[in-house]
Amino acid sequence: MTSTLLMVGTRKGLWIGSSDAAREDWHFTGPHFDMEEVYSCLVDTRGQRVRLFAGASSSWLGPQVWRSDDLGASWQETPGGAVRFPEGTDAKVERVWQLVAGAEPGVVWAGTEPGAVFRSTDNGETFELERALWDHPHRPQWNAGFGGQAFHTVLPHPDDPDSVTAALSTGGVYQTSDGGASWEPRNQGIRAEFLPEGQQYPEFGQCVHKVTRHPSRPERLFLQNHGGVYRSDDHGATWQSIADGLPAEFGFSIVSHPHEPDTVYVFPINGGDRRYPPEARARVWRSRDAGESWEELGDGLPDHFYVAVMRDAMSTDGHDPAGVYFGARNGSVWGSADAGDTWRCLAADLPDVMVVRAATIAD
Protein backbone atom coordinates (compact mmCIF):
# COMPACT_ATOMS: atom_id res chain seq x y z
CA MET A 1 0.00 0.00 0.00
CA THR A 2 1.12 3.54 -0.70
CA SER A 3 -0.04 6.94 0.46
CA THR A 4 0.47 10.47 -0.85
CA LEU A 5 2.01 13.43 0.96
CA LEU A 6 1.77 17.06 -0.09
CA MET A 7 3.79 19.85 1.51
CA VAL A 8 2.51 23.39 0.85
CA GLY A 9 4.79 26.21 1.96
CA THR A 10 3.33 29.71 2.14
CA ARG A 11 4.31 33.18 3.31
CA LYS A 12 2.59 32.46 6.62
CA GLY A 13 3.39 28.85 7.41
CA LEU A 14 3.38 25.28 6.15
CA TRP A 15 0.44 22.97 5.51
CA ILE A 16 0.77 19.20 5.04
CA GLY A 17 -1.81 17.23 3.07
CA SER A 18 -2.22 13.46 3.13
CA SER A 19 -4.26 11.06 1.04
CA ASP A 20 -4.26 7.47 -0.12
CA ALA A 21 -3.14 6.29 -3.55
CA ALA A 22 -6.52 7.22 -5.07
CA ARG A 23 -5.96 10.86 -4.07
CA GLU A 24 -9.68 11.55 -3.80
CA ASP A 25 -9.95 12.61 -0.15
CA TRP A 26 -7.35 14.88 1.45
CA HIS A 27 -6.65 15.87 5.04
CA PHE A 28 -4.51 18.93 5.76
CA THR A 29 -2.75 19.94 8.96
CA GLY A 30 -1.34 23.37 9.66
CA PRO A 31 -0.14 25.92 9.93
CA HIS A 32 3.21 24.57 10.96
CA PHE A 33 5.64 27.48 11.59
CA ASP A 34 2.71 29.89 11.86
CA MET A 35 3.45 33.34 10.34
CA GLU A 36 6.88 32.26 9.06
CA GLU A 37 7.78 32.26 5.37
CA VAL A 38 8.29 28.74 4.00
CA TYR A 39 10.08 28.93 0.65
CA SER A 40 11.44 25.37 0.45
CA CYS A 41 10.32 21.85 1.30
CA LEU A 42 11.72 18.36 0.81
CA VAL A 43 10.18 14.92 1.27
CA ASP A 44 13.24 12.68 1.61
CA THR A 45 12.22 9.05 1.04
CA ARG A 46 15.72 7.58 0.72
CA GLY A 47 16.05 6.08 4.19
CA GLN A 48 14.05 3.55 6.16
CA ARG A 49 12.08 6.45 7.61
CA VAL A 50 10.74 9.40 5.61
CA ARG A 51 12.27 12.71 6.67
CA LEU A 52 10.58 16.03 5.94
CA PHE A 53 12.54 19.25 5.63
CA ALA A 54 11.20 22.80 5.65
CA GLY A 55 13.13 26.01 5.06
CA ALA A 56 11.30 28.57 7.21
CA SER A 57 12.18 32.19 7.85
CA SER A 58 11.06 34.18 10.88
CA SER A 59 11.08 37.98 10.78
CA TRP A 60 12.50 37.88 14.32
CA LEU A 61 14.82 34.87 14.35
CA GLY A 62 15.85 34.59 10.70
CA PRO A 63 15.99 31.45 8.55
CA GLN A 64 15.99 27.91 9.87
CA VAL A 65 15.95 24.42 8.36
CA TRP A 66 13.52 22.22 10.25
CA ARG A 67 13.23 18.44 9.99
CA SER A 68 10.59 15.92 10.97
CA ASP A 69 10.84 12.13 11.17
CA ASP A 70 7.13 11.60 11.95
CA LEU A 71 5.52 13.19 8.88
CA GLY A 72 5.17 16.59 10.51
CA ALA A 73 3.73 15.60 13.88
CA SER A 74 6.83 17.11 15.51
CA TRP A 75 9.78 19.18 14.27
CA GLN A 76 13.41 19.63 15.27
CA GLU A 77 15.54 22.59 14.37
CA THR A 78 19.04 22.19 13.04
CA PRO A 79 21.88 23.53 15.22
CA GLY A 80 22.33 27.25 14.77
CA GLY A 81 20.03 27.29 11.77
CA ALA A 82 22.36 24.90 9.93
CA VAL A 83 22.57 26.99 6.74
CA ARG A 84 24.85 29.85 7.68
CA PHE A 85 27.71 31.66 5.96
CA PRO A 86 31.09 31.09 7.59
CA GLU A 87 32.86 33.93 9.30
CA GLY A 88 34.68 36.26 6.93
CA THR A 89 32.17 36.10 4.08
CA ASP A 90 30.39 39.30 5.17
CA ALA A 91 27.00 37.83 4.24
CA LYS A 92 23.99 36.34 5.99
CA VAL A 93 21.28 33.98 4.76
CA GLU A 94 17.95 35.73 4.22
CA ARG A 95 15.95 32.71 3.01
CA VAL A 96 16.47 29.07 2.08
CA TRP A 97 14.93 28.81 -1.41
CA GLN A 98 15.76 25.19 -2.21
CA LEU A 99 16.14 21.89 -0.36
CA VAL A 100 16.82 18.76 -2.41
CA ALA A 101 18.14 15.27 -1.79
CA GLY A 102 21.55 14.46 -3.21
CA ALA A 103 22.67 11.46 -5.23
CA GLU A 104 24.55 9.97 -2.26
CA PRO A 105 23.07 8.76 1.02
CA GLY A 106 22.87 11.52 3.60
CA VAL A 107 23.55 14.36 1.15
CA VAL A 108 21.11 17.27 1.14
CA TRP A 109 21.57 20.43 -0.93
CA ALA A 110 20.33 23.92 -0.11
CA GLY A 111 20.09 27.04 -2.27
CA THR A 112 19.83 30.40 -0.56
CA GLU A 113 19.27 34.13 -0.82
CA PRO A 114 21.73 35.75 -1.33
CA GLY A 115 22.86 33.47 -4.14
CA ALA A 116 24.78 30.57 -2.64
CA VAL A 117 24.66 26.77 -2.53
CA PHE A 118 25.27 24.69 0.59
CA ARG A 119 25.77 20.94 1.01
CA SER A 120 25.03 18.65 3.95
CA THR A 121 26.63 15.21 4.19
CA ASP A 122 24.88 14.24 7.45
CA ASN A 123 21.23 14.21 6.34
CA GLY A 124 20.62 17.86 7.01
CA GLU A 125 22.22 18.15 10.45
CA THR A 126 24.87 20.63 9.24
CA PHE A 127 25.55 22.42 5.94
CA GLU A 128 28.75 23.71 4.38
CA LEU A 129 29.07 26.53 1.84
CA GLU A 130 30.09 25.58 -1.71
CA ARG A 131 32.98 27.98 -1.57
CA ALA A 132 34.12 27.76 -5.20
CA LEU A 133 30.70 28.92 -6.37
CA TRP A 134 30.52 31.69 -3.78
CA ASP A 135 34.00 32.87 -4.82
CA HIS A 136 33.20 32.62 -8.54
CA PRO A 137 34.50 35.67 -10.47
CA HIS A 138 31.03 36.18 -11.97
CA ARG A 139 29.33 36.64 -8.61
CA PRO A 140 29.90 40.40 -8.25
CA GLN A 141 27.96 40.82 -11.51
CA TRP A 142 24.97 38.69 -10.52
CA ASN A 143 21.99 40.97 -10.11
CA ALA A 144 18.85 40.54 -8.04
CA GLY A 145 15.61 39.77 -9.82
CA PHE A 146 12.29 41.19 -8.69
CA GLY A 147 11.98 38.39 -6.12
CA GLY A 148 15.58 38.69 -4.94
CA GLN A 149 18.88 37.04 -5.83
CA ALA A 150 18.84 33.37 -4.93
CA PHE A 151 19.88 29.91 -6.04
CA HIS A 152 16.35 28.58 -6.45
CA THR A 153 17.27 25.38 -8.34
CA VAL A 154 19.78 22.69 -7.39
CA LEU A 155 19.80 19.52 -9.51
CA PRO A 156 22.22 16.79 -8.41
CA HIS A 157 22.98 14.34 -11.20
CA PRO A 158 21.24 11.07 -10.28
CA ASP A 159 24.18 8.88 -11.36
CA ASP A 160 27.22 11.11 -10.83
CA PRO A 161 27.70 12.62 -7.35
CA ASP A 162 30.35 15.00 -8.69
CA SER A 163 27.90 16.66 -11.09
CA VAL A 164 25.41 19.29 -9.92
CA THR A 165 23.47 21.88 -11.91
CA ALA A 166 22.27 25.04 -10.17
CA ALA A 167 20.40 28.14 -11.33
CA LEU A 168 19.78 31.59 -9.90
CA SER A 169 18.05 34.84 -10.69
CA THR A 170 19.65 36.73 -12.27
CA GLY A 171 22.82 34.88 -13.06
CA GLY A 172 21.73 31.88 -15.07
CA VAL A 173 22.71 28.22 -14.97
CA TYR A 174 25.98 26.98 -13.47
CA GLN A 175 27.33 23.45 -13.29
CA THR A 176 30.09 21.54 -11.56
CA SER A 177 31.49 18.24 -12.80
CA ASP A 178 34.26 17.91 -10.20
CA GLY A 179 32.35 17.79 -6.94
CA GLY A 180 32.22 21.54 -6.49
CA ALA A 181 35.90 22.33 -7.01
CA SER A 182 34.90 24.52 -9.98
CA TRP A 183 31.69 25.81 -11.57
CA GLU A 184 31.06 26.96 -15.13
CA PRO A 185 28.14 28.83 -16.72
CA ARG A 186 25.83 26.77 -18.96
CA ASN A 187 23.65 29.34 -20.71
CA GLN A 188 24.43 29.08 -24.42
CA GLY A 189 21.24 29.73 -26.37
CA ILE A 190 19.20 31.24 -23.52
CA ARG A 191 17.98 34.73 -24.34
CA ALA A 192 18.14 37.61 -21.86
CA GLU A 193 15.33 39.64 -23.40
CA PHE A 194 15.82 42.56 -21.02
CA LEU A 195 19.29 43.33 -22.44
CA PRO A 196 19.88 45.56 -25.50
CA GLU A 197 19.80 44.06 -28.99
CA GLY A 198 23.08 42.38 -29.83
CA GLN A 199 23.76 41.59 -26.16
CA GLN A 200 20.87 39.24 -25.42
CA TYR A 201 22.86 35.98 -25.41
CA PRO A 202 25.54 36.60 -22.77
CA GLU A 203 27.72 33.98 -21.12
CA PHE A 204 25.78 34.54 -17.88
CA GLY A 205 23.22 36.96 -16.46
CA GLN A 206 20.02 35.34 -17.72
CA CYS A 207 16.98 35.42 -15.43
CA VAL A 208 16.34 31.68 -15.25
CA HIS A 209 13.18 30.88 -13.29
CA LYS A 210 13.37 27.08 -12.94
CA VAL A 211 15.15 23.99 -14.34
CA THR A 212 13.98 20.37 -14.22
CA ARG A 213 14.94 16.96 -15.57
CA HIS A 214 13.91 13.33 -15.42
CA PRO A 215 16.25 11.01 -13.48
CA SER A 216 16.18 8.31 -16.17
CA ARG A 217 17.47 10.78 -18.80
CA PRO A 218 19.69 13.18 -16.87
CA GLU A 219 21.44 14.70 -19.90
CA ARG A 220 18.12 16.32 -20.92
CA LEU A 221 17.12 19.46 -19.05
CA PHE A 222 14.04 21.68 -19.36
CA LEU A 223 14.13 25.35 -18.40
CA GLN A 224 11.59 28.12 -17.82
CA ASN A 225 13.22 31.49 -18.37
CA HIS A 226 12.03 35.03 -17.64
CA GLY A 227 10.94 34.97 -21.26
CA GLY A 228 11.24 31.60 -22.99
CA VAL A 229 11.00 27.86 -22.45
CA TYR A 230 14.03 25.76 -23.40
CA ARG A 231 15.38 22.23 -23.66
CA SER A 232 18.94 20.98 -23.51
CA ASP A 233 19.88 17.53 -24.77
CA ASP A 234 23.55 17.81 -23.81
CA HIS A 235 23.39 18.44 -20.07
CA GLY A 236 23.10 22.20 -20.40
CA ALA A 237 25.96 22.80 -22.82
CA THR A 238 23.49 24.27 -25.35
CA TRP A 239 19.79 25.19 -25.20
CA GLN A 240 17.04 25.44 -27.80
CA SER A 241 13.65 27.13 -27.56
CA ILE A 242 10.57 24.93 -27.18
CA ALA A 243 8.11 27.77 -26.56
CA ASP A 244 6.24 27.48 -29.89
CA GLY A 245 2.65 26.50 -29.21
CA LEU A 246 2.42 28.06 -25.75
CA PRO A 247 0.15 31.07 -25.11
CA ALA A 248 3.00 32.92 -23.35
CA GLU A 249 6.74 32.41 -22.99
CA PHE A 250 6.83 33.87 -19.48
CA GLY A 251 6.29 31.72 -16.40
CA PHE A 252 7.97 30.50 -13.26
CA SER A 253 7.37 26.77 -12.87
CA ILE A 254 8.36 23.76 -14.96
CA VAL A 255 8.24 20.12 -13.80
CA SER A 256 8.91 16.70 -15.32
CA HIS A 257 6.57 13.73 -15.32
CA PRO A 258 7.81 11.15 -12.79
CA HIS A 259 7.81 8.25 -15.27
CA GLU A 260 7.92 9.74 -18.77
CA PRO A 261 11.16 11.61 -19.60
CA ASP A 262 9.60 13.32 -22.63
CA THR A 263 6.65 14.72 -20.65
CA VAL A 264 6.93 18.16 -19.06
CA TYR A 265 4.46 20.66 -17.55
CA VAL A 266 4.45 24.48 -17.41
CA PHE A 267 2.05 27.15 -16.15
CA PRO A 268 2.36 30.12 -18.54
CA ILE A 269 1.57 33.63 -17.31
CA ASN A 270 1.75 37.07 -18.86
CA GLY A 271 4.99 38.98 -18.59
CA GLY A 272 5.31 42.64 -17.71
CA ASP A 273 2.93 43.96 -15.08
CA ARG A 274 0.14 41.41 -15.72
CA ARG A 275 1.44 38.46 -13.75
CA TYR A 276 -1.56 36.19 -14.28
CA PRO A 277 -2.41 33.59 -16.97
CA PRO A 278 -3.34 34.67 -20.49
CA GLU A 279 -7.03 35.63 -20.60
CA ALA A 280 -7.00 35.05 -16.81
CA ARG A 281 -7.70 31.35 -17.37
CA ALA A 282 -5.85 28.93 -15.11
CA ARG A 283 -4.29 26.39 -17.45
CA VAL A 284 -1.46 23.89 -17.20
CA TRP A 285 0.25 23.05 -20.49
CA ARG A 286 1.74 19.63 -21.12
CA SER A 287 4.17 18.36 -23.72
CA ARG A 288 4.60 14.64 -24.29
CA ASP A 289 7.28 14.99 -26.96
CA ALA A 290 9.95 17.01 -25.12
CA GLY A 291 8.50 20.37 -26.15
CA GLU A 292 7.89 19.75 -29.84
CA SER A 293 4.16 20.32 -29.22
CA TRP A 294 1.96 21.41 -26.32
CA GLU A 295 -1.58 20.69 -25.14
CA GLU A 296 -3.76 22.81 -22.89
CA LEU A 297 -5.05 21.18 -19.68
CA GLY A 298 -7.96 22.95 -18.04
CA ASP A 299 -10.71 20.47 -17.15
CA GLY A 300 -11.78 21.57 -13.66
CA LEU A 301 -9.57 24.67 -13.49
CA PRO A 302 -11.08 28.16 -13.08
CA ASP A 303 -11.61 30.61 -15.94
CA HIS A 304 -11.14 33.66 -13.68
CA PHE A 305 -7.69 33.41 -12.15
CA TYR A 306 -5.78 36.66 -11.70
CA VAL A 307 -2.80 35.25 -9.82
CA ALA A 308 0.50 33.55 -10.61
CA VAL A 309 2.03 30.17 -9.80
CA MET A 310 5.56 30.59 -8.47
CA ARG A 311 8.70 28.70 -9.50
CA ASP A 312 8.56 25.94 -6.85
CA ALA A 313 4.77 25.83 -6.48
CA MET A 314 4.29 22.93 -8.92
CA SER A 315 5.15 19.28 -8.29
CA THR A 316 4.40 15.69 -9.25
CA ASP A 317 4.08 12.55 -7.16
CA GLY A 318 5.32 9.04 -7.97
CA HIS A 319 2.02 7.29 -8.65
CA ASP A 320 0.93 5.77 -11.94
CA PRO A 321 -1.06 7.55 -13.23
CA ALA A 322 0.96 10.47 -11.98
CA GLY A 323 -0.39 13.19 -9.76
CA VAL A 324 0.32 16.81 -10.69
CA TYR A 325 -0.16 19.68 -8.24
CA PHE A 326 0.20 23.45 -8.12
CA GLY A 327 -0.43 26.21 -5.61
CA ALA A 328 -1.21 29.83 -6.41
CA ARG A 329 -0.72 33.24 -4.89
CA ASN A 330 -4.41 33.38 -3.91
CA GLY A 331 -3.88 30.48 -1.50
CA SER A 332 -5.52 27.79 -3.60
CA VAL A 333 -3.97 24.35 -4.19
CA TRP A 334 -5.01 22.27 -7.20
CA GLY A 335 -4.38 18.62 -7.95
CA SER A 336 -4.77 16.10 -10.73
CA ALA A 337 -4.71 12.35 -10.17
CA ASP A 338 -4.60 11.53 -13.89
CA ALA A 339 -1.41 13.25 -15.09
CA GLY A 340 -3.15 16.57 -15.69
CA ASP A 341 -6.23 15.48 -17.64
CA THR A 342 -8.66 16.62 -14.93
CA TRP A 343 -8.24 18.91 -11.92
CA ARG A 344 -9.91 19.83 -8.65
CA CYS A 345 -9.23 22.21 -5.77
CA LEU A 346 -7.60 20.48 -2.79
CA ALA A 347 -7.31 23.51 -0.50
CA ALA A 348 -8.39 27.14 -0.60
CA ASP A 349 -7.89 30.40 1.29
CA LEU A 350 -4.36 29.60 2.41
CA PRO A 351 -1.73 32.33 2.43
CA ASP A 352 0.36 33.09 -0.66
CA VAL A 353 1.74 29.69 -1.82
CA MET A 354 5.48 29.64 -2.52
CA VAL A 355 6.34 25.92 -2.72
CA VAL A 356 4.53 22.62 -3.29
CA ARG A 357 6.20 19.22 -2.85
CA ALA A 358 4.43 15.91 -3.47
CA ALA A 359 5.64 12.37 -2.81
CA THR A 360 4.47 8.79 -2.79
CA ILE A 361 5.14 7.01 0.50
CA ALA A 362 5.11 3.30 1.20
CA ASP A 363 2.93 2.48 4.20
- What structural category characterises the helix and strand content? mainly beta
Strand order within the widest beta sheet: 3-2-1-28
Total discrete domains? 1
Radius of gyration: 19 Å
- Uncertain segments are none
Provide the CATH top-level class: Mainly Beta
Distance between the termini: 6 Å
Largest sheet composition? 4 strands, antiparallel
Counting DSSP E segments of at least 2 residues, the number of strands comes to 28
Organism: Nocardioides taihuensis
InterPro entries: WD40/YVTN_repeat-like_dom_sf, Xyloglucanase_GH74
Protein name: WD40/YVTN/BNR-like repeat-containing protein
Provide a brief overview of the structure.
With 363 residues, the protein is an all-beta fold. Helices cover 1% and strands 41% of the residues. The strands form seven sheets. The chain has a four-stranded antiparallel β-sheet, with no helix packed on it. Strands 4-5-6-7 form a four-stranded antiparallel β-sheet, with no helix packed on it.
